[in-house]
Amino acid sequence: MNGPIYNILEQKIEILHQVDSHDLALVGPIQLPVQLNDREATFQWYTWLSLRDLPSDKDELLKALPTADLASAQQSSVLVYGDFSSADQAFIRFHSICHTGDIFGSKRCDCGFQLQQSLTMIVENGSGALFYLANHEGRGIGLFSKSLAYILQQEGFDTVEANEHLGFEDDHRTYSEAITVLKTFRVKPVSLITNNPKKITSLREAGMIVDRSVPLWGDISAHNKRYLQTKIEKSGHMYRVDSELFSS
């Protein structure tokens, strides 16, 4: 890699050091225009990579990329909107990748709806960030295992039972890497878009101030009603008492 090319890339890479874990390489910002229904919004896009088997030196890292086979293991990223670091009120969303919901628009969950609605809420708020977490498929069990869980769900098991019958816990997800990245952008309080109190606990235990949670329910249908009810009844997700989930 020649000098001018390295200089361009080196300025866009930041090495983040984690206590008791591998360093992270954070790349960005990259301008990313996104179509949200009838409007276009430009986000600042960042992605990060765990340097578990890769060097923390920027020059050595760039040289190692062609043989690193990063496509076999997806990396996470974050879309940042507005003056995220300084705004008095900023929305954040920790969004777990959902191959079926986010890409195909599956109605078996509400993930695709939550992804688009979170981005819309962040833009309407004026500042915020959506963290897209690539190692969270199927609550952390992976896409192949998730497909097996779906087979069990078709036989009548709920989402928690299906995961447990495959030998998994209800939820394998962790948020340590995302929180490390979040802290590089913002130290002020955040408003977390979530129905999941575990996400709030993870942020607070890491020292972030969560001034409030913003619930996100919608796109409820006959296909996903039991799935959503199970998240409330067995996984502790918050809900409104007037939710149509509990109407006849």
Summarize the topology:
Elements: H1 3-10, E1 13-16, E2 24-36, E3 39-50, H2 58-64, E4 76-81, E5 91-96, H3 99-103, H4 111-125, E6 128-133, H5 137-140, H6 143-154, H7 159-165, H8 176-185, E7 190-193, H9 197-205, E8 210-214, H10 225-235
Structure summary:
With 248 residues, the chain is α/β, with parallel strands linked by helices. It has a single domain (18-57, 71-136, 173-240), classed as Rossmann fold (3-Layer(aba) Sandwich), CATH 3.40.50. Helices cover 35% and strands 23% of the residues.
Explain this structure to me?
The chain is α/β, with parallel strands linked by helices. The chain is 35% helix and 23% strand. It has one domain (18-57, 71-136, 173-240): GTP cyclohydrolase II (Rossmann fold). It is built from ten helices and eight strands. An eight-stranded mixed β-sheet has the order 1-2-3-4-6-5-7-8, with helices on both faces.
Largest sheet: 8 strands, mixed
Order of helices and strands: HEEEHEEHHEHHHHEHEH
| Widest sheet, order of strands | 1-2-3-4-6-5-7-8
CATH homologous superfamily placement: GTP cyclohydrolase II
The termini sit apart by: 64 Å
Strand content: 15-25%
Number of alpha- plus pi-helical segments: 10
Number of strands: 8
